[in-house]
Amino acid sequence: MTRKQFWQTASNWGFLIGAGLFAMNIIGWALKLEATNSWLYELLLFVVICPMIIYTGKRNARNAGPDGYSYGHAVGFVFAMMMFAGIVYGVGRFLIINFMGLEYYSAINESAIDNAFMIYQNFPQFDSMLEMRDTMLGWLRNPFYLIFEGVIGMVFRGGFLGLVLCAFVYTKPDIFAPAAESEQKEDNESGSE
Questions:
Q1: N or C: which end of the chain has fewer CB within 10 A?
Q2: Which backbone phi and psi does 171 adopt, to 5 degrees?
Q3: Per-residue pLDDT tens for 6-20?
């Protein structure tokens, strides 16, 4: 696989994974899973990511042919694919948080920040920290922050899953496969000299 094919394939599959995760995000919003059953929401995300990692890994290994598909290439592909999935997922999160489910996500974000600030209630700097509350809520609606968070989240989630799952999809080179045409030409040219 050439470098151009690598990035093109990773971006295409990453787009599909990101779109699937965005669909799961819409389901999570419609069923209010993020506020009530966050474990079920995370399980749905896991159900989208794992089969795609396995499928793309097996597909790439099959396309590699006798050259083999190393574990390092498989993991690198998963990280690249998850980076693109994170971009699409982050854009989707921006759309759903700011337009489709504004009230729902505002309530979740405010509750999470208020719970976090309860820990610091007895600190002397608590009043100055409360002034940061509105700034932090603004970050949670910022498209650049959401895309960055999506990329980092997908690279960690998918990347660490890829570290495990790629152990099942890599293939070793076939040392008994016939030499490629270019290698045969080189052998013939070097033999004629």
A1: C
A2: -130, 150
A3: 899 999 999 999 998
